[in-house]
Amino acid sequence: MKTPFTTLCYIESGGCWLMLHRDRKKDDVNEGKWIGIGGHFEEGESPEECLKREALEETGFRLEKMRMRGLVTFSSEGWGTEYMALFTAELPGEYGALPALPSCPEGELAWVPVEKVETLNLWEGDRIFLRLLLKDTPFFSLKLSYDTEGNLVETALNGEPFSWM
């Protein structure tokens, strides 16, 4: 059984974020969406250890400069609750700007200019935390609740009702 604890990271290089188009896994709640890289914790892992392992598995990159930016709680009818440690990271100098990307078993990896990320097929709640990242918001707690159709029905930032509108 998978743990409800996950990581997600947006890796920056050359004004772009590394994005993953989820189109290869069966029964994937993220199918067709663009997200960062990351995944479920394994037994005994810290958030940083989980992220380093997932980054290596999905991209081949060894992350060193990571910054935990927030905790995101996803609540969804039919999918349960997930607690996600949200990170940003820079690639170590050895990779340079926009390194080549390997094949990923979960989907297509692509470098996307930061200003174009919002044009991708994203979860509505992801748009909120991506804006918080871009504003360099201090460490935050964000709750995102979805209905069975995948519609965002409730948001809370640091325990208070929140709307980006």
Q: Secondary-structure map with pairings?
A:
Layout: E1 5-13, E2 16-22, E3 34-35, H1 47-59, E4 65-76, E5 80-90, E6 107-113, H2 124-134, E7 140-146, E8 152-157, E9 160-161
Parallel strand pairs: 1-5, 4-7
Antiparallel strand pairs: 1-2, 2-3, 2-6, 4-5, 7-8, 8-9
What does this structure look like?
There is one protein chain. The radius of gyration is 15 Å and the shape is globular. It has a single domain (5-161), classed as Nucleoside Triphosphate Pyrophosphohydrolase (Alpha-Beta Complex), CATH 3.90.79.10. The chain has 2 helices and 9 strands. Strands 1, 2, 3, 4, 5, 6, 7, 8 and 9 form a 9-stranded mixed sheet that branches. By secondary structure, the protein is mainly beta. The model has no long low-confidence stretch (mean pLDDT 88). A hairpin with a 2-residue loop joins strand 1 and strand 2. The protein has helices at residues 47-59, 124-134; strands at residues 5-13, 16-22, 34-35, 65-76, 80-90, 107-113, 140-146, 152-157, 160-161.
Put the structure in a nutshell.
By secondary structure, this protein is mainly β.
Distance between the termini: 37 Å
If classified by CATH, what would the architecture be? Alpha-Beta Complex
Helix/strand order, N-terminal first: EEEHEEEHEEE
Q: SS-based structural class? A: mainly beta
Write down the CATH topology: Nucleoside Triphosphate Pyrophosphohydrolase
Shape: globular
Beta fraction: 35-45%
Uncertain stretches: none
Number of helices: 2
From the alpha-carbon coordinates, what is the Rg to the nearest angstrom? 15 Å
